[in-house]
Amino acid sequence: MNKQDQMTMQEAERKMESLREVFQVVRLVDGKMLMDREKRINAGDLSETCQCYTFWKKDKECKNCSSLLALKEQTQKIKFEFLDSQVFQVISRYVEIDGRPYVMEMIQNLDESIQIDQEGYEKLISKLSGYNEKLYTDVLTGIYNRRFFEEEIKKMEDEAGIAVIDLDDFKLHNDTYGHSAGDAALITTANIIKKYIRKTDILIRYGGDEFLLILPSIKKHIFEDKLKLIREKIHDAVVPNYEKMQLSVSIGGTIFREGNMEDAVASADRQMYIAKNYKNMVVTEWDENGKKKEENSASEKLKQQILIVDDSEINREILKEILKEDYRILEAANGEECLEQLERYETGISLVLLDIVMPEMDGFEVLAAMNQNHWIEDIPVIMISSEDSDSYIRRAYEMGVSDYISRPFDAKIVYQRVLNMIKLYAKQRRLIRLVTRQIYEKERNNRMLIGILSQIVEFRNGESGRHVIHINLITQLLLEQLVKKTGKYQLSWEDRFLIATASALHDIGKIGIDERILNKPGKLTKEEFEIMKAHTLIGAQMLDNLDMYRNEKLLKLAYEICRWHHERYDGKGYPDGLVGEEIPISAQVVSLADVYDALVSERVYKKAFSHEKALEMIRNGECGTFNPLLLQCMTEAQDKLKTMMEVAEE
């Protein structure tokens, strides 16, 4: 104990008065009262409440009382407490006043008005900047991801050149050389583009094989020359380990001067689709070559795209003749060709006209695939067939078609129903964009607050803040793989987003665990492990106490994850011994992500295992039993997982 912690009562009162300029509450707790109180509690006497009740308004005893610990160890303790939706920092400092033991408690509400010393401020900003940087980075290519566009770039108002760059024949590369080759092609393309742009320019991986390039304050002719240079350099490139692969890109460009950034991107996208007709080409809004090569190009490039799927060439020609004046037409002679076009263009297709009876893959099989890949949610389907029985029509609607037209049909009716459906979905997409923008703004603030809380936990736990980032990324990857594999859990995009966000709070209960146990370098004793296990219940209780947010989906998911992320599929986990699907899927996914990251990361009690060793240990059951379906997902995504973790560490 320092001499400065020995004082008279008069000195103590002066010190407390000065501390009240910084802290909201400063008070003295009598040491003898604390010790007597502990004795009575141990004896089962709860008749007298302690001083804590006046401030915290709790209806039960505090666990891990920091003031009692400070008294026993004659030192200073720091603790975080929750009161409703507020977080408080409590500093308990042992002092001796006139020779008697006391604890001086200093309490501060951690809201936005708190000032942090410069060094601490820089550390916190660094951690949080790193957190957001990871969220905005595409794990494969290392450039910005779509989220960065949605949250930051869409707000841009400055003049800029906008280009959409799409890899030609990407699916063919994947099918011919394998998905690793496809990844290599994307990485090579991104690296070449980065090499030939300025530091102020912005490159985003906008879709699977699509890049968005934004070049602020650039003249039209320089912009066009730059795009042609990028096209040439990509075409001349050699993909490492895949020398026979020939890369080419289709590029559409426009100049954004005012208005909505999304409209400018859509305009560049339309130019790209014109270029796509010829491959390895650049088309801009003002490009004369495009006008020469595309009849009525000025209006053609604004047309929406319809995919006609029918094994009969005559039927396709009839529909094409009805619609070609106002729409761009894509054709598929069977179900497999249809899926290839959907994979290539995705929401670039405004409508699918689908026949039922086709060889190899019929219309219902196409609908099943569209449902599995969630295309049916964004691309309307009108089924056109001579099969007019109630059972066929009912089945089609049950599988998600928007309309059903029986043959023979009236050309004017077909045209009008196509027009109505496209207009309806166009309005729906505008509404979705508006709602999505609002959700992103709201969730961005949520993530920042959650990030702050999780960083506090990680800092106290002696770990880097990367664990939280890793869990978020791994959770996203596993969920994406899971929805591709099965519709069993009915996880929407919002569900997956919220689970990944809530994963940051999985260990928040460690706030209530003694630091000596949290950061012990050796193996925990049986008693210490029992205390450590309590962090699941502490975290769940913290969240459950947030009454005003009890019905929020994010809080419910965070509660599931906090309480049950140490449960195991065979019932041998804790705290409740849940078995199999009794464990919420949110907790199952975060549990697997947490175990993997713990294995591949260095901790105070262990060295890091390799990616391969970690997967082997998990599959062999050395870390407990997991959902076999999730293990399949992790195995299938193992290459992407390894790349993602390597990028995250850079």
Automatic annotation (TrEMBL):
<dbReference type="Pfam" id="PF00072">
    <property type="entry name" value="Response_reg"/>
</dbReference>
<keyword id="KW-0175">Coiled coil</keyword>
<dbReference type="InterPro" id="IPR003607">
    <property type="entry name" value="HD/PDEase_dom"/>
</dbReference>
<feature type="domain" description="GGDEF">
    <location>
        <begin position="158"/>
        <end position="288"/>
    </location>
</feature>
<dbReference type="Pfam" id="PF13487">
    <property type="entry name" value="HD_5"/>
</dbReference>
<dbReference type="InterPro" id="IPR029787">
    <property type="entry name" value="Nucleotide_cyclase"/>
</dbReference>
<dbReference type="InterPro" id="IPR037522">
    <property type="entry name" value="HD_GYP_dom"/>
</dbReference>
<dbReference type="InterPro" id="IPR001789">
    <property type="entry name" value="Sig_transdc_resp-reg_receiver"/>
</dbReference>
<dbReference type="Pfam" id="PF00990">
    <property type="entry name" value="GGDEF"/>
</dbReference>
<dbReference type="GO" id="GO:0000160">
    <property type="term" value="P:phosphorelay signal transduction system"/>
</dbReference>
<feature type="modified residue" description="4-aspartylphosphate">
    <location>
        <position position="355"/>
    </location>
</feature>
<dbReference type="InterPro" id="IPR043128">
    <property type="entry name" value="Rev_trsase/Diguanyl_cyclase"/>
</dbReference>
<comment type="function">
    <text>May play the central regulatory role in sporulation. It may be an element of the effector pathway responsible for the activation of sporulation genes in response to nutritional stress. Spo0A may act in concert with spo0H (a sigma factor) to control the expression of some genes that are critical to the sporulation process.</text>
</comment>
<dbReference type="InterPro" id="IPR011006">
    <property type="entry name" value="CheY-like_superfamily"/>
</dbReference>
<protein>
    <recommendedName>
        <fullName>Stage 0 sporulation protein A homolog</fullName>
    </recommendedName>
</protein>
<feature type="domain" description="HD-GYP">
    <location>
        <begin position="442"/>
        <end position="650"/>
    </location>
</feature>
<feature type="coiled-coil region">
    <location>
        <begin position="2"/>
        <end position="29"/>
    </location>
</feature>
<dbReference type="InterPro" id="IPR052020">
    <property type="entry name" value="Cyclic_di-GMP/3'3'-cGAMP_PDE"/>
</dbReference>
<dbReference type="InterPro" id="IPR000160">
    <property type="entry name" value="GGDEF_dom"/>
</dbReference>
<feature type="domain" description="Response regulatory">
    <location>
        <begin position="305"/>
        <end position="422"/>
    </location>
</feature>
<keyword id="KW-0597">Phosphoprotein</keyword>
